[in-house]
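TA notes. Do not distribute before section.
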Amino acid sequence: QVQLVESGGGSVQAGGSLRLTCVGSGGTYSKRGVAWFRQAPGKEREGVAAVNSDGTTSYADSVTGRFAISKDGAQNTMYLQMNSLKPEDTGMYYCAATVSCRTVPPQFRLVDSQYAYWGQGTQVTVSS
């Protein structure tokens, strides 16, 4: 059974940094696409960053240049390095993974319906 567990969230001031970690179990992740999504109170869940099974990355415009996604397939671990955080980055952050050997077309990599497995989330709060 595939399971994803996020950690690393917390409260920081604007301009600060956090590194989120997602550890997967129940399968191998070297051939899966993985992504980070977030949801702020009263808003819909949005894709933040994704790394495809071939290693290519995608980012939402709002985080480009500030966030970096990476994946260690051998360790079944995914990361989201978040720098220059802003209050609008506040929300619950979720990691997600595709089924094995799935290649997500570039235009859909930040669409939540492309991902079959989800973690429980970790809260990020950025104060001004």
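Switch to the second chain here.
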Amino acid sequence: QVHLVASGGGSVRPGGSLRLSCSASGRSYKGDCMGWFRDVPGKQREGVATIFTLPPRGTFTYYADSVKGRFIISRDDAKNVTYLQMDNLKPEDTAMYYCASEGDPCTVSAVHSFDHWGQGTQVTVSS
């Protein structure tokens, strides 16, 4: 049974940084699609970043326009962990962040294509 655990959320001031981690168990996700999404009350779930590897072409990442240049998604396949490095955080980044796996297509707009979801980790950006 697949189990995803997200961690690393917290409260930071605008301009601060956080790194979220998503630890997977139950199967190996080496190269497979992983994604980060976020929920803001009153809004639809938003795709933040996704990552997958397509040998031999390489690793592909996709980002929401609102986080490009500030967030980086990465993975450590040996540890079965996916990360989301968030820099220059803004108040509008405040949300509950979720990791998910096995999306097809593996894009930030394909929220409903992801099969497995972890519990959320809260990120609050406030002065």
